[in-house]
């Protein structure tokens, strides 16, 4: 029977990877992902997992090894964070283009520079158009559940797209929470054995994968990828429904929280959604009609569901954990605006929690207060909600002038 | 589970593959590149096979028992001239493809 | 499996878009002829990617993947790990990359593969520059050679790829040349049978990039061996054997003068090249058992 364990987010990811019976693991250490690489090595060393562990020399090679292995017809695992994901970027796109349904935890950490060890979403947001699905976790149970579901979704013959499961560095990767973990037999029944649906590397049935393609076919291959994302929308809900039936826990591409009669809604993503829900509860107790919309699947972006869930709302704001530099607003905000474009709503863009800055209850409260003043009264748009005073004067260095 | 041996073998079926894959083993008519062609003086040929060994396109066959002992696949011979250069007997001449060749 | 439109004698199509006189083409044909069908190949972008084909058409009749320029060794290691995880211990995983993809941008993943001991047969066909992009210098371009990025001749000596591999403790590493096909084929067989990583570093003449008539591809490489500019040797379990020892090394100018890329190299630099060629050859012969 399933049982409860105290796990941190990285260990929950490892439990789900083990449950999927991956056959090849390639990982490279990077804070805050490193314990995934370590615990997978432990699982192989102590015989709990029958897999080849390839101790690679970089993240670029980590994903290359995983891609090579998966192309032979097995599940391969790797995981990364931050600049490690940036180094993988080339292979991230390659894996998507050859439709290798790799599942990869991404432990969200800010991209340098400045150097930061701590959480924001710039690393995975920088990969948002790379052809990978992206699921974002609110808590450690999500890490386990969404990783399990990711194998089913990615490998579905209608989808055939790789998937990142994004978990906030330290906030989730290193937080111990109670997690319900399935028995291997239950996991086997849900995930099932790996089936190669598309191209492969097999000496007994040879083909050459990923060769040069002319403009005569390139557009069609990109379009094929887009159809994978289109199919993923329904496949995700199918898989989540099956997951609920088997394990009792409910997941959706987008999760409404207290939206029934909400006037004011904060859309957000990742672990800060939990804080937002908690603050919404407090404000509800004070009679404010507020709600939260949590984006679980950022790719594909559930724009129809977002529009439907927000259709009776008066005010919407989006809290992003990446800056969206040079754009009119941050990445999640852009998607929400596009989803709501026909509704004539003014959607505010809030940016916060960068480089590990905590999104506290006060931060969320400030956002709801600011929204009550019809947004943008206090802040610029996009509003850097947790910005200190005098941000341009934080380090002053003596130098020859 | 997940072994090559246990793959279901249901014969052959043509399947759509998504993304880039090459599955047609074909050859281009690289013989059309040729400016000069090798011409063998069969009477001097010792059938040593050196021309065959070094031909990058692998278009030479030696027939030890035939008078026309060196056969070229003209559809593919690019006319690089390595065979003529390497022939220990000097019995391969490169002649122009223009005119009567 | 492949739709075979035009048959070929071996696993490589006859009409492929390699330049006339291309050494790489001769190398790949011989390598695959020795290895046979129970082989999968990883090839990065570059001249050899032409064998992966264009669109639906392939120039080879075996399983393969065109990887990225710097991950040939890592992709191959992944393929090997995947095959082994399925109980396949027999298929040869061949990484086939040029000098740029091996000694420059791919050196890190190559180093990782060798250090881990992954059983991959890695062949570096060395045409001594980035030929596919238009003859730009690589770290394997020899001193004095003119390329499009060293128009006045390269000022520094080349990187010693085999020494790098040997420094990792690679079980088998060898140099080879199109000028000695039986030696190349023997080494491919030996590398295939090595229980661990192996490297064959093959001198791949390039008429387009080196500036000589296509007919002279073999002659140029033979001159390289006879002058000691390209030494045929192998290192097996740390033991060095020089396979071909010319009775007397020909002057290196006999090799340089055949090629346009060394045209105009000043006499004092030729002397320096001669000195370094002789010293390297003698050092290898001294080590040779």
UniProtKB/TrEMBL annotation, chain A:
One GO MF term attached to the UniProt entry: oxidoreductase activity, acting on the aldehyde or oxo group of donors
The Pyruvate flavodoxin/ferredoxin oxidoreductase pyrimidine binding domain, residue ranges: 16-240
Gene3D superfamilies hit by this protein: 3.40.50.920, 3.40.50.970
Presence of keyword DNA damage: no
CDD domains: TPP_PYR_PFOR_IOR-alpha_like
Keywords noted in UniProt: Oxidoreductase, Pyruvate
Coiled coil ranges: none
Pyruvate:ferredoxin oxidoreductase core domain residues: 262-363
Cross-referenced PANTHER family: PYRUVATE-FLAVODOXIN OXIDOREDUCTASE-RELATED
BP terms from Gene Ontology: carboxylic acid metabolic process; response to oxidative stress
Family in the record: Belongs to the pyruvate:ferredoxin/flavodoxin oxidoreductase family.
Protein name: Pyruvate ferredoxin oxidoreductase
From TrEMBL, chain C:
Annotated keywords: Oxidoreductase, Pyruvate
Signal sequence range: none
Domain Thiamine pyrophosphate enzyme TPP-binding: start-end pairs: 60-202
Lineage of the organism: Bacteria, Bacillati, Bacillota, Clostridia, Eubacteriales
SUPFAM superfamilies: Thiamin diphosphate-binding fold (THDP-binding)
Superkingdom per UniProt: Bacteria
InterPro entries (alphabetical): PorB-like, THDP-binding, TPP_enzyme_TPP-bd
Protein name as catalogued: Pyruvate synthase subunit beta
GO molecular function: oxidoreductase activity; thiamine pyrophosphate binding
Pfam families linked: TPP_enzyme_C
UniProt xrefs under PANTHER family: PYRUVATE SYNTHASE SUBUNIT PORB
